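pasting for ref
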Amino acid sequence: MVVKQFKSDRSGRVTEIELVSGEVLNDPAIIVKNVAPVNSDTPAGAVASGTKVTLSCATEGAVIFYTTDGSDPDMESSRYSSKITISADKTIKAVAYKDGCLAAPVETFEYTIAS
């Protein structure tokens, strides 16, 4: 869990406050939870062609986004909804988001076809 100090202006825009060591603000702190990392039910490495990979996240209500082109995923990437079939060497990068939480780091799962 990460604890950070935030403030909002009159328009409702929220910004993070940078604190100098030892500085304490009188405003109440907001506790922001991290989204759990994305997991794969299939360990990365050599797999049989046709293997189906299931992605999951332990954070209830989190939405997983992923890419297979080597780029880091964001909310504009493919939304995970069903198993991903590995029929050729493939790298899956995945991240989970949930409103009001900080996203976990991008997870990378590299698969090769076993010969």
